[in-house]
Amino acid sequence: MIVNKKFLFIYNKIANQRVRRFLERWISNKEKGYAYSGTIRKIYADNYNIKIGYGSYGGCFNRSNIPRGVTFGNYCSLAGNVRIFRANHPADKFTTHPILYNPVMHYVKKDLLNRPPLYIGHDVWIGANVVILPAVINIGNGAIIGAGSIVTKDVPPYSVMVGNPAKQIKRRFNDLIIERLENTKWWELEFDGLTTKIDEFNRIINGPD
Questions:
Q1: How many Cβ atoms are within 10 Å of 157's Cβ, its own excluded?
Q2: DSSP for 1-18, written as a single string
Q3: 3-state secondary structure of 187
């Protein structure tokens, strides 16, 4: 991925968030969209501690819903309204109000909540209105999370999860196919490399013609 240092410099000189949003869209248009823009990924990693893999698109770029400390693998597909939480209000104090832990409330000097990182693997599809709660630390490669699900625990690779709380209803493929897909590491390929091998990867799922 190519990073345009001139665009980075301009972005970092701007404080207004609305103008930053406009500039993000402009940069993405110059670099074949959010899914492929190296500069946008550098901006998100450096300014917001949100790491977004190549080819990933959609809600991973919604900074209102995605907190710091989240990593997305390559080729993830997210609905725009996916929400991720990395901490709960403390229940063991006299109040659950953020005055006890959030410096925005002007009592404490720094954020006192533990906010664990979240790693989302490659080729993960997360549907509309999904909520991912703080106990979740890892979502495996190839997982699918159905629309409206509330995810309360780690998600196994290639599983299909639905419901509140989200539960696994099936796996996408059997063990042999999963092993073959994992061994290809196809998600490490960028556009030109991937598009030349799509038929080859399809044969892993469908068998020979």
A1: 20
A2: ----HHHHHHHHT---HH
A3: helix
pTM summary value: 0.93
The pLDDT, as a whole number, for residue 170 is 97
Q: Are strands 167-171 and 138-139 parallel, antiparallel or unpaired?
A: unpaired
Which one of 89, 97, 106, 122 is the catalytic residue? 89
Q: CA–CA separation, 45 vs 71, rounded Å?
A: 9
Averaged pLDDT for residues 19-38: 96
Measured from the Cβ of residue 160, the count of other Cβ atoms closer than 10 Å reads: 18
3-state secondary structure 33-46: CCCCCHHHHHHHHH
Query: How would you classify the pairing of strands 159-162 and 167-171?
Result: antiparallel
Torsion, Cα of 50, 67, 162, 137 (10° steps): 70
State residue 103's pLDDT score: 94
Q: Clarify whether 97 is annotated catalytic.
A: no
Per-residue pLDDT reduced to its tens digit, 144-172: 999 999 999 999 999 999 999 999 999 99
Q: In what order do the strands lie in the sheet with 150-151?
A: 83-84, 131-132, 150-151
Radius of gyration of the chain (CA): 19
